[in-house]
Amino acid sequence: MDKFVITGGTRLTGEVSISGAKNAAIAIIPAVILSEGVCRIENVPNITDVTAITRILQDMGAVIRSVNKSTLEIDSRPIRSYVASYELARHMRASYYLLGALLGRFSHAVVTMPGGCDFGVRPIDQHLKGFSALGASYKLENGMVDVYSDQLVGSNIYMDVVTVGATVNTMLAAVRAKGTTVIENAAKEPHIVDLANFLNTMGADVRGAGTDVIKINGVEHLHGCTYSIIPDQIEAGTYMVAAAATGGDVTVGNVIPKHLESISAKLEEMGVEVEEYDDAVRVRRTKPLNKCNIKTMPHPGFPTDMQPQIAVLLSIARGTSIINEGIWDNRFRYVEELRRMGAQISVDGKVAVVEGIDHLTAAPVKATDLRAGAAMLIAAMCAHGVSSVEDIQHIERGYENVEEKFRALGADIRRVHVEETPSVARAV
Ligand code: EPZ
């Protein structure tokens, strides 16, 4: 269990290159199960969530070759079982994408119930609604989800809530079903479009991804392919906010600016300069930050996965800002940590009120989840003094080479190994 020790106060300057999108990669890699050929996936981020999902596929029999640091060649033809390893899958929520992929290939899937996480209950009722609409039955017992069908048949599904996961899982189950499936009120995130493009590269017939109606004409066979994953919208946004928080001047390269529109718009509203290029954005902050209000929404709204990071920026802006968390019930756990650095934030349910202060002050803090951990890094970089950020394994789930990338921008960040102390049973 390592920690980062960060000395704040350095303006971040220079260039950073964004890696492949985590939330696209952990949907596309399971989708290879549907292929009857070898798939070469490029621009795969080197992060622990990807390691976890590839290990599950290998455990089931897939042959995965690492061509270079960001390219995998996956042959899922040797997979014979539709049961994913409980031990391997239970540690990773997104293992539930194996349900749609295994169901689509074997008409049967048995995968562990997804774990919750630090920001509230994470139901799968809409995933199960999608599978049922396609003619599958399911049972939830012994901590496993068991979904099975004699024959998946295309159908119309209206999602009660906009859900990335259920949209992905329904797409995976529908691409080889008999007939046509229409998903209404579908999620429109960039990683949904990326998955649709990958499936179509394998020979599927998926139309409308990126709109709220996705139409899928089932096909019998999907072949191998070569595909490159889109850049990570949230990694890019994290570096954009870090540049703004430190009063820096950073060019964030290898991005799709359109995916960053809501983040750029909010930064500009706060007085940050954002210049867009073909595949890069330059972020500069030369004057005090203005307050602004944030409401997290499904894409193309402001992403919930950028909420902790923007909260750090608002905590050092002039004035009072309001953050409305529109997606998750409890995504403000990180606020307790930020308060240790002097942030003036009060939380009431899904609303946070941020009173801007002149600057944060260093403190020992913890990463409570992936994006909260990224926010702690930003806070430590703009705080006065030396901070430590513990439990950085959360950050490494979704940020490739985070220490090297920030150090290359001038951050004073170093990794320190922490001996794991056996947990002491609390005196009752
Ligand atoms: C994905 O989670 C992302 N994870 C999350 O990013 C992200 O926060 C979330 O989408 C929203 O954009 C991955 O892509 C691996 P949802 P997911 O289903 O699919 C409710 C990160 O930091 N809901 O879109 O689990 C749910 O409670 C992670 O990279 C149901 O009610 O999220 C929530 O309120 C954190 N029933 C809303 O929908 C369901 O069956 C959105 O959830 C499913 C979801």
Automatic annotation (TrEMBL):
One Pfam entry name: EPSP_synthase
Catalysed reaction, written as an equation: phosphoenolpyruvate + UDP-N-acetyl-alpha-D-glucosamine = UDP-N-acetyl-3-O-(1-carboxyvinyl)-alpha-D-glucosamine + phosphate
One BP term from GO: cell wall organization
Residues annotated with 2-(S-cysteinyl)pyruvic acid O-phosphothioketal modification: 117
Cellular compartment(s): Cytoplasm
UniProt key word Cell cycle: yes
UniProt cross-references to InterPro entries, sorted A to Z: Enolpyruvate_Tfrase_dom, Enolpyruvate_Tfrase_sf, MurA_subfamily, RNA3'P_cycl/enolpyr_Trfase_a/b, UDP_GlcNAc_COvinyl_MurA
Pathway: Cell wall biogenesis; peptidoglycan biosynthesis
One Gene Ontology CC term in the entry: cytoplasm
Enzyme Commission no: 2.5.1.7
Residues given in the record as phosphoenolpyruvate binding sites: 22-23
Signal peptide positions on this chain: none
Coiled-coil intervals, chain numbering: none
Domain Enolpyruvate transferase: 7-405
UniProt-annotated catalytic positions: 117
Statement: the UniProt record of this protein carries the keyword Protein biosynthesis: no
GO terms assigned for molecular function: UDP-N-acetylglucosamine 1-carboxyvinyltransferase activity
Described purpose of this protein according to its UniProt entry: Cell wall formation. Adds enolpyruvyl to UDP-N-acetylglucosamine.
HAMAP family: MurA
Homology family: Belongs to the EPSP synthase family. MurA subfamily.
Designated name of the protein: UDP-N-acetylglucosamine 1-carboxyvinyltransferase
Gene behind the chain: murA
